[in-house]
Amino acid sequence: MSLLVVGLSHRSAPVSLLERASLGQDAQVKLLQDTVAAEPATEAAVLATCNRIELYADVDKFHAGVAELSTLLAQHSGVGLDELTPYLYVHYEDRAVHHMFSVACGLDSMVVGEGQILGQLKDSLAKAQELHSAGRLMNDLFQQALRVGKRAHSETGIDRAGQSLVTFGLEQLARETPVDEWVRGKKTLVIGAGSMSSLAAATLARAGAAEIVVANRTFDRAERLAQILNDGDTDVTARAVPMESVPGELARADLAVSCTGATGLVLTGADIARAVEGRTPETTVLPQARPVKLPQPAAGEDACPLDLGAVQQGFSVAGEAAVAGMDAATLEQHAAWVDNGSVDRRVSKEAELISALAQTAATVGRIPERRRPEGPSDVVRAEPVLCLLDLAMPRDIDAAAHRVGGVRLVDIESLAEASADAPMASDVDQVRRIVSDEVNAFGAAQRAAHITPTVVALRTMAADVVAGEIARLEGRLPGLDDKHRAEITQTVRRVVDKLLHAPTVRVKQLAAEPGGAGYADALRTLFDLDQETVAAVSRATDEKGPRA
User: Fold this and answer.
1) Among 49, 87, 312, 450, which residue's CB has the most CB atoms within a 10 Å radius?
2) Which residues bind substrate (predicted)?
3) Which domains does the chain have, with CATH numbers?
């Protein structure tokens, strides 16, 4: 049997597809049950987070395993196989182990180095154990991955390479301001009481939020989280409210963080618009591009369809400001007017841009934004009165919030874009070396474990031969006393042990090397070992349960 992983993540698929393919708790359970019931797989585990869905399985056939696992992922995610397939990745044997260990260390996370993935791995293993879909391989793999992840965090500074998704999201909302300074004194609302929401609440409390209101569909869980926050070593005031109170709490909040398991929207665009209605945003002076000044009118420009008098402040004809309220047909008319020679192109330096813009508008039906800044100028821009952080997958907050005045929204999609160019810490290389070493060690241990049942079966067969020969000797020498019988038995056993010691030790060493799986088959063939006896030893080993 061999390890196979089939999955998709923020690195392989657009967030919109991940959102549609997300698996609820019931879907994960059914996926695990169907996977182990399928012919190629004997055990399985699912790792489903806000930015990845991965199905791990122990399979006996690679191609059949890939086909079956891909089909099951499509079936339970609700996304068609044809649409899902281009975004799936497949890892097999040592590459699958390498991928798992990289995930555990946070190297494959949206925010490199984040440690929350360790808790998610632990939950995935617990679910597989509860459903009895995790055998020896899944238990060994996940438990070792947890150890590797902890080692990476304890031996390196990988934590400096990134932080939790919560902190990263708050940094995006705070922009250039330090998170602690930006959060301090804010009234905050946390929607949900799961692991991510609890992490968000704890982060806000440590950052100095003045108040944290926790809302959850199960009110007891919201109360429990609020009590934990109040009992902590911060000065935050926390309280729990039912979900029905969210609209009212949102209207008085400065910041809301949402991460629930809901399949539909928790906050609609209308909810958010009502929450900020009547609030007056503060203003700040920010740099903005200076518009391009329109060239001085030349002969014949009176016929220009553009209303030059309406743009006394100047504009760039290559940007939306130039064509505000203008339809594509009018722009095309202007382009034709330029091309007909009504304007001296040496004066109208933007003529070619106007023509190209008109052609684009006619093709896509809108005017693209292509402003070219020419130095900063101070303008007054409103600061948001409500900031929203959506960490759920599928999303909790309507993307229409981006268009509501006075609101700033950061969601999984914008976090993915922001993290794409995030700098990597030097510690990442050290973690990669740890992963590589651990993969080699894990592979050697698995290959050695693979031959162990064969070695055990061989020694069992040898013990049976010794017992049979001693019994035959007693039949031929009935007067043999106990002392001599014991001495003879011990001597025969020592001879057999010495004969088997070197080959069994050596075969374990060879089997631990890459490509060493064939030594078990050779041993079975050379000593004519019964395959069922070897399989019985393997089953007995697996039935002992997960190793600590």
Assistant:
1) 49
2) 49-52, 109, 114-116, 120
3) 2-162 (3.30.460.30), 165-279+382-414 (3.40.50.720), 442-543 (no CATH)
